[in-house]
Amino acid sequence: MSDTGERVPLRRLLALAVPALGVLAAEPLYVLVDTAVVGHLGAVPLAGLALGGTLFTVVSSQLTFLSYGTTARTARLHGAGRRRDAVAEGAQATWLGVGVGVVLMLLAQLLAVPVAELLAGPGPIADAAASWLRIALLGAPLVLVTLAGHGWMRGVQDTRRPLYFVLTGNAVSAVLCPVLVYPLGWGLEGSAVANLVGQTIVAALFLRALVVERVPMRPEFAKMRAQLGLGRDLVLRTLAFQACFLSATSVAARFGAETAAAHQVVWQLWSFLALVHDSIAIAAQSLVGAALGRESARHAKGIARQVTWYGLGFGFLLGLVFAGLYGILPTLFTTDPAVLAEIPQVWWFFVGLQPIAGVVFALDGVFLGAGDAAYLRTATMLSAAIGYLPLIWLSLAFGWGLVGIWTGLSLFMLGRLLTLLLRARSGRWAVTGLTTADTAA
């Protein structure tokens, strides 16, 4: 596209966003299958899976810079018409994933038991979680290779093939899991092995896609160091999210089982819609990075305005839909009258925040595409420190319950909205050329 500020066709945006949404939704859907299979083994294996799976998710989510950071760097090169160099950036991210993954794999063998016992206390649940985690994290290098693969393929605006890769691996895992757990009698460990097989298939497909591009595969440590620099800011940003979300769950649990259950129901819906919003962010990331790589700041800013309005409109639509589902949807998750009585306290926070979330996620994608990770880190940590975390713990101290917790989430989202809109208005993020814009913060 030329530097005329023309709009990106909605069809083009959806062509990137819809497959990305499929990828984002595939893992939660597989977890539901895994949970259903293991759930029939009894309470201890299910609790072990819940704890081990949570730890696995915490570890992997801290390393999403391998996808988001790689997309930012790759998209610029792709936008500059240098596809070969863009894919070569993915090769370096893959080497980085292998190295970090091997370290994690070894640490898991050493620390799985003490970490599980720290969280659950010594006993059968911790033992089950550690056993599952040790097997599952044998695939840590494979998971990180997959994250790198998502990064470079999004950067070259190919979100369709990653969807096929992920669906293939998850489908094999979903079929294999009940076979290993029951007929072969491997129990909870069978679930972990099925997970590992799926990781192997997906990583192999991404590696094959990389090899057929015929780019240089020799490790280049200077590029890996640059990727780690961008990754540092994204890791800190993710830590701020996790500190908030874990604190909210912990405080909700201290108000009793009904409060914790109500929070869990609405929070899972919030998390699901976050994936929906994030698919637009991924499309924005790819398009903005490519525009800046073409030296077209004007077009990048035009995309930013366009996806912001799309995010706002989509958020309003989701809010209206879930407002209409108020009397129906909660009863699909629970029939407990006490839990259902707690849900209205937070349901309207959840609904009302959707337009704000639509804008925040869209601008997150814009700034990730620009490589503006340092600003995102600071904005997220500041919003968490001023808004979310204080309200969560004050809610515990003063007995404000779910209303206090979700008021904190609202302040957190409003803080992020304000800081992102100010950054968008400044235009300082739109640094053109082949260097990521994290140096512009």
From TrEMBL:
Entry GO MF terms: antiporter activity; xenobiotic transmembrane transporter activity
Keyword Plastid listed: no
Keyword RNA-binding: no
A GO-annotated cellular component: plasma membrane
Keywords annotated in UniProt: Cell membrane, Membrane, Transmembrane, Transmembrane helix, Transport
Family the UniProt entry places it in: Belongs to the multi antimicrobial extrusion (MATE) (TC 2.A.66.1) family.
Name of this protein: Putative MATE family efflux protein
Organism: Halosaccharopolyspora lacisalsi
